Amino acid sequence: MEHGARRAPRILVVEDDLLIAMDLVDELEDAGISVAGPARTVKDALRMIELQDIDAALLDVNLQDEDSYPIAAALQQRGLPFAFLSGHAAAALPPEFAGQQMLQKPVTTATLTSVIEGLLSSVS
Amino acid sequence: MGRQVAAFDWSRTSLGPMENWPAALRISVSNVLNSPFPAFVAWGPDLITIHNDAFRPILGMKPAPLGKPMAENWAEAWEAVSPFVEATMRGESVFFENHEVEIDRSGQMEKAYFTFAYSPLRDEEGVVRGLMDTVVETTSSVEAERKARIRNGELMHRMKNTLAIVSAIANQTYRSSQTVKEANERLLRRLTTLGNAQSVLMSEDHEAADIRAVVESSLAPFRQAIGQIKVEGQPLHLAERHVFSLALALNELASNAMKYGALTVPEGRVRLGWRTDGEDFVLEWRETGGPAVTEPASSGFGSFLIRSVLADDFNGEVTLDYRRDGVVCRLVTAESNLAFRRSAAHHDHAA
Known about the structure:
Chain A is of the alpha/beta class.
């Protein structure tokens, strides 16, 4: 792990479906974005937030047997920006995350990269 | 019912003996009794009930309502019903569709739905003295609609999810193919496999499918070699996610066997078998009699589907062996991993 001053921003990807996760990572890396993960569970994601320098995150709302809200709360606590990804047509977010961006799966690479740019510029 | 009404001792009620009833009441009662549509008349200060035969089933196991005040017959629901009654007695007509009322007609409270109309009944001077209720119970259709809504929501979610998976498969197929033609062929084959697996799910109960039907659907495109593939295993139900990943993996194996493996020659054979022993579920694809096998130099998206996605979706281990005498692929997982949870709408359905 590099800790240089001009380190490329790193995005945490949380997605439980292996196929979709792998595809997301490929798309992001092709766009020149460095990826942490993909994390498949809340536990993995929380550990990655703890151990890796991440700058923003993409969170699938529904994981295998859980939802990703605890991850969102951990990110919020650290002031790290994130966007949700969901397969649900109109998933209602809990009030504490009401203002967060919600992307519908499947999502195009262009949308992904512009959302991530937006997330990164919101903190810099 | 007409006979029961005639035989009833009305002098014990506020209506008094039948021969003294006002013409308006007699006519209304006669209309209701002659109607095949569920209805009753309620008349007088305490709204004494006179109902027809068609109305009786709505009351279930409630005590006989004939000659009793309306408020007594509907005691448990009176708080909800009385505003409508009061409005009607002021001369208004009341009409509601699929109105929810909580009633007790079987020894416990239940939600029931009614489409009903209350019309005021007036005496010769035009004063409202009672009401007529015509009503159909719509509980079963309201519930059927509610279930259909839940199921539509689930279908919508499943479709979105399938689209996300399809777009990942398409992306990955194009990334790992040398030419557009190759990519197109592979993508079509994979999408067809997903489509066939979906058909198997739809033809069964939407959330689970028999493993043999899944196997047969994923091997169907290789019809010309079907005599060379021997399939054996016990009937077993697979959950939706298992259905898709198994179908995709088998399709990759068969496609490879057709191109490089045992299915390239007439004497080649494939044995596809599975078993459960109470602890583990083991599925094995074994090729024999084909040309000598060499491990491919690079592993593409096809082997990712076999090695990683299949293993991941089944929470198990997959080995893909390029043995010289034939490819062997094994999936091993705990049998308990095959168990699946049904969604809410299906719980209702099964109950």
